[in-house]
Amino acid sequence: MLLERLAEQLAAREAADLRRELRTATSPTAPRQRVRAPDGRERTLRMFCSNDYLGLASDPRLVAAWAEGAQTWGVGSGASHLISGHTAAHVALAQALAALLAPVVPQARALTFSTGYMANLAVLTALGGGDAALFCARLNHASLIDGARLARAPVVLFDTPAELAPLLVGSDAPIKLIVTDAVFSMDGHLAPLAELLALAEAHDAWLVVDDAHGLGVLGPRGAGSLAHLGLRSQRLIAIGTLGKAIGVAGAFVAAHPLVIEALTQLARPYIYTTAAPPALAHTTEVALGLAAGPDGDARRAHLARLQARLQAGLTTLAAARGWRLAPTATPIHALIVGDNATALAAAQRLAERGFRVPAIRPPTVAEGMARLRITLCATHTEADVDDLLEAMA
Asked: Could you give the CA distance from residue 20 to residue 11 in angstroms, rounded to a whole number?
């Protein structure tokens, strides 16, 4: 019966065009990548689905840094941070992250995590328990949703700052956390962070911002969405991932020193997991320097040109097809086609023409909002963008 029940659930997903397929890359992440399909066929596709926005993931300088880190530190950390796994490499990375976010969070300290999912769970469960209340943007990433569920605190959803304001007025919780993505990952638009911070200031709340898709892409030195908007406050708790634009892996929280100390003492995803390999921390520190320096500036400028080129072409295509193009300020471009079958068919036809553009369907997005999610990397060329637009047309 148990296996029959699972088979029925999977068959229902298949019938609703919700089945996902696991593809296997057989070459490093890059605009052109060898991919093996579930049927075993292997081919080179032009990839418009990676979050490696600055194109650093396969950079030879980072490959060399990884080798150097492994020669220095070995390949494992051996234990959790609070036992024996915390090394000078982790300290150096945390200091570099704190320095990058210092214009946003006064006196910033940083704490590193193995994944962004763990960082979000850590913040919300450590700070959102007891007599706290969580005010969460409705479009938040699954990791923030799960963190809010695990926090065991009342959760209120909002769409806009205007909707949030009276909710804060009506709350008598002594600890309030406003929780939002900085860049909503399925369409690319920025959250109204300035308005949310003003509400946090007015109602004695924390503003927790997951900047997974803004870090490295937006702001001076790639410091992210908050820096891009010129925001600065001790009420900010900035979360960032290091496996997207920074090109490596892991995540961090940057906040006031007392917040970081509270996470160190209370956050179960930090306390009870093995520390990331110090070689990885060393490589990430090198990657952060590249992303924040002149090379990163050049890559962001090229990426901005590609974004404008793609946006113009998609605007024309969307108008011709009666589809909708989500507004975006980032390398994420969402062409909303509506039903699951249409999105799947479009993605398949693009694959037949040599382009990997995924169809995003519920529950990742709302019912009736299936879409093609196109992402750009700084290692794409203008010709890549033009060829994609031609294939889509």
From this structure: 12
Residues 229, 81: one domain? yes
Alpha carbon separation from 287 to 28, 58, 291, 367, 387 (Å, rounded): 17, 11, 6, 38, 30
Nearest-angstrom CA–CA distance, 117 and 240: 10
Q: In the chain, how many domains are there?
A: 2
What is the average pLDDT score of the chain? 95
39 and 95 inside one domain: no
Q: pLDDT tens digit string along 65-89?
A: 999 999 999 999 999 999 999 999 9
Q: What is the pTM of this model?
A: 0.94
Domain boundary among 262, 292, 322: 292
In this structure, the answer to whether residues 259 and 146 fall within a common structural domain is: yes
Residue 101, domain extent: 60-292
Report, in angstroms and rounded to the nearest whole number, the Rg of the chain calculated over CA atoms. Answer: 21
Q: pLDDT per residue over 245-261, tens digit each?
A: 999 999 999 999 999 99
Q: Please provide residue 144's backbone torsions phi and psi, each rounded to the nearest 5 degrees.
A: -70, -40
The pLDDT tens digits for 117-133 are 999 999 999 999 889 99
Do residues 249 and 243 make contact, with C-beta atoms less than 8 angstroms apart?
A: yes
Spatial separation of the C-alpha atoms in residues 76 and 208, rounded to whole Å: 31
DSSP state of 85: I
